[in-house]
């Protein structure tokens, strides 16, 4: 996929560029567009942009396009790109930073459910120290009122859920992991740190 840029100079948001550089510490300024990250990315085929294109767009100050892109949410954080990068660009750190920034704004329509999924997932992990599958499913359904009106999908999900329950793959009640309090404390510390950083801006 090619990014079309007119012959006219791109009037990018340089404050966005500066903010990403400062928050991510990903050293994206080292990127010389060798495409190694794009060739190794396991999700690049299914997204709107490749990792190297996102880097280029950030450096160009293309804030709206970057924060509404699919890639920042579909990134699997597998670190294949970072491991293969000849200039040690920390692309996973960049993606994490862009996700946080996207949540503060308005994610693109094609990925609007993914940020909500992250919130539901983290809330369950905070309370249980691990994922609680049934609670996760119910949380996702509750966050999508339109989906609750789809009777056919609800019946299919119910049948699948019953099959998983019979095979002991789906627990009815949540189970807290050993040391779940430590996970809860860690998440709260991160949230407090983020809040303090916001207040100092």
**How would you describe the shape?**
globular
- What is the CA–CA distance across the termini? 37 Å
Question: In DSSP terms, counting alpha (H) and pi (I) runs of 4 or more, how many helices?
Answer: 12
Residues in helix, %:
55-70%
Give the rounded overall mean pLDDT: 85
How many structural units, i.e. domains? 2
How would you characterize the largest beta sheet?
none
Helix/sheet category:
mainly alpha
Order of helices and strands: HHHHHHHHHHHH
Strand % is: under 5%
Q: What low-confidence regions span 5 or more consecutive residues with pLDDT below 50?
A: 5-9
State the total count of DSSP E strands.
0
Rg, Å, rounded: 20 Å
Descriptive notes:
The chain is 60% helix and 0% strand. It has helices at residues 14-24, 36-40, 51-59, 63-67, 71-74, 80-84, 91-104, 113-128, 133-142, 145-148, 151-166, 180-200. The two termini are 37 Å apart. With 201 residues, the protein is mainly α. The protein has two domains: 14-106, no CATH class; 113-200, no CATH class.
